[in-house]
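Lecture 7 notes: from sequence to structure.

We start with a single chain of 183 residues. Read the sequence below before looking at the structure.
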Amino acid sequence: MSYSKAPRPRAFTLKLSETDVKRLYETAYVNNTTPENIITRFVCDLVHGTYTNGPDEREMAIRYLARCSYATGSEKDFPAWLIENACIDELADALEVHDAMDEEIVFCCEHPDLSQETDIKSAETCKNGAEKAMHRWHDKYIADGGKQPYADAITAARQYITALTEAVTGLPKHASRRIPYWK
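Now the structure, written as tokens:
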């Protein structure tokens, strides 16, 4: 998966009291900015985004998150492990290949007049390769102390990737899938 670095409007729902909203607007006004700009710049600092306020601000945002301890005591699930180990995109690609090969196999079986035996074998080989890769990542996750069983881990990864895709594109996952090269 690759994403554009160009900023565009995103929608997130914040749960704030009326008092907090008032204070946010006051803080923004006094600092000659907008609530959206404050939140956007903080998020960019937190994630070392494209547009940050600098290294000191990034450090403070990261320390804030660590101090709030959102993840204290919770076990890392498979998607969190993949993100921390920088392989969530590879798993997403493997899932996409796996699912596309499933579709290809079904198509070939339903339309034998439009396909050859080698098409099914080729699709099965690609699907098996993708599945082996997914198992390798899960095995590494388990070796690192992860406890989520394979089927649950893959389901959780699919849910995360779907939510991320929808948040990034603004479209349901099935509407934003790339057209596979073999179609």
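Residues 175-183 have pLDDT under 50 and may be disordered. Keep this in mind for problem set 3.
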